[in-house]
Amino acid sequence: MRAATMEGVKQPIVVRDLPDPKIEANGAIIRVEANGICRSDWHAWVGDWTWIGLEFEFPHVLGHEFCGVVEEVGHEVERFAAGDRVLVPFSQGCGACEQCLVGNTNVCENGVSPGFSYWGGFGRLSQVPLADLNLVAMPERMTFLEGAALGCRYMTAFHGVVDRARVSAGEWVAVHGCGGVGLSVVQIATALGANVIAVDIDPAKLDFAERVGAVETVLATSTDPVAAIQEITKGGAHVAVDALGIRATCQNALGSLRIRGRHLQIGQTGHDEQGLIEFPIDVMLGKELTVVASQGMPASRYGAMLNMIEKGRLAPSLLISRTVALEECGEVMDAMADYGTLGFPVIDRY
């Protein structure tokens, strides 16, 4: 199969032929039709997340935001067959641990993720384990581009906004960082009837946030975002989201909350923070703040999200900024070093 391969940490991405994956008894081989290029891919490529045990043997095939067509299934698979169009959740379960048994496959004790635990969607083929548990049927009218847009960023935002932070109509929601996951939060929270304030250092990203629903924007390079949000909301946001995972966005999000506000952590840290960010504990105690986090989304929750898409309440495809060929993966990854991408870049030509 053709694949854009990671040859080493920070080494150029190379497109070459690799062996096709082999089928497992409970798995399915997917012919990838579209795959989003996510900042999580960039983190892995630059060598981040070694502090949580992420290491690769090279060459390695990244890509965890893909959808496609089932090429082959193992003899134990019952729910899917060759020719089925499928979505591939990136947070996948084992089906046997305590969390899986109560439906929380996204935080499986033995969980795996395509592109990290095994070769993913930067290749033409990927073998997904435990297919009956870890695949989702794609709606007939959904295109592959739309399917790829549901990858890590969008589904994590949906789970975070709907299930974890429980955003409701009329609330103020401050989104700190308007990359792909931040823009997803903007659109989803808006669809729920919330008033969204978008915060970023890039005017182009703030313009994009307005197009997908933000009612206010704050350019953090010229305005103190905490003071601005406190003023706009007359007391602070009900929900604040750190959608980037750096010290500034996390602490600004916490600072922008009103009494009894909820902080939603979606952004993962990079090399500077290495998983550790200081929290203003005394302020959190005084305001009785709540902190929750979102890690992917269980496959069983896709129905709720797909229903909102089919009814026109959500439109993840609006977040796709460009489509690229496999050979352009390296260029997109390079641009992420200084946050130079907008929305969702998606591979659709293999």
Q: Considering DSSP H and I runs of 4 or more, what fraction of the residues is helical?
A: 25-40%
The chain-level structural class is alpha/beta
For the report, how would you describe the main beta sheet?
A: 7 strands, mixed
Average pLDDT taken over every residue: 97
Please give the CATH architecture of the largest domain.
Answer: Alpha-Beta Complex
What is the global morphology? globular
Distance between the termini: 10 Å
| Cα gyration radius (Å) | 20 Å
Q: CATH topology of the largest domain, what is it called?
A: Quinone Oxidoreductase, Chain A, domain 1
How many strands? Answer: 15
Distinct helical segment count: 12
Number of domains: 2
Low-confidence sequence ranges: none
CATH superfamily of the largest domain: Medium-chain alcohol dehydrogenases, catalytic domain
β-sheet strand percentage: 15-25%
Order of helices and strands: EEEHEEHEHEHHEHEHEHEHEHEHEHE
Query: What would CATH call the class of the largest domain?
Result: Alpha Beta
Provide structural commentary.
By secondary structure, the chain is an alpha/beta fold. It folds into two domains: 2-151 and 297-349, Medium-chain alcohol dehydrogenases, catalytic domain (Quinone Oxidoreductase, Chain A, domain 1, Alpha-Beta Complex); 166-293, NAD(P)-binding Rossmann-like Domain (Rossmann fold), CATH 3.40.50.720. The protein has twelve helices and 15 strands. Strands 3, 4, 5, 6, 7, 14 and 15 form a seven-stranded mixed sheet that branches. Helix 6 links the parallel strand 8 (172-176) and strand 9. The longest helix has 13 residues, at 152-164.
